[in-house]
Amino acid sequence: HAGPHPQASTPARPQAGRERPSLPVPRTHAPRAAGQLAALLAFAEAYVNWNAADVSAQMARLARASVGQARSEMALAAAETRGDTTLSEGGIANRGTVEAVAPLRGRVDRYVVVTRESTIATNTGAYQGLAPAWHLTIATVTVVGSGGERRWVVSSWQPES
What we know:
- The protein has about 160 residues and is an alpha+beta fold.
- Helix content is about 30%, strand content about 30%.
């Protein structure tokens, strides 16, 4: 577990000219990164953990807790799942963990979020035997508020897989 303050790695030495040295991992700027990371982790954990009974409310909570594109995306998901009888009749639920969050190279506000998720159903065999799947999302965080009320929120959430 790297925590909010990962250390820079030492570049690898090439072996007889066959390998190139790896690039050092950039150091994280603690206060900024800790707030960004906390916002991303909270959002991602809520996004991947839901059941048929609470998915619409969960997406609506994420919409209220985010801004910009992420807010629009979550509001749409809340509306779409509200009347989805397939979810409720199937007893469908999703469980996941955030496996990694890493800054997108060259950007201080964009991150790659990797989750591992399992979908199950209590009233249908449609998801029986389905292996957990890895998912990658590109996310952006933005600071909102002023003075002592400043906080980081998710402003863009783009699932890629």
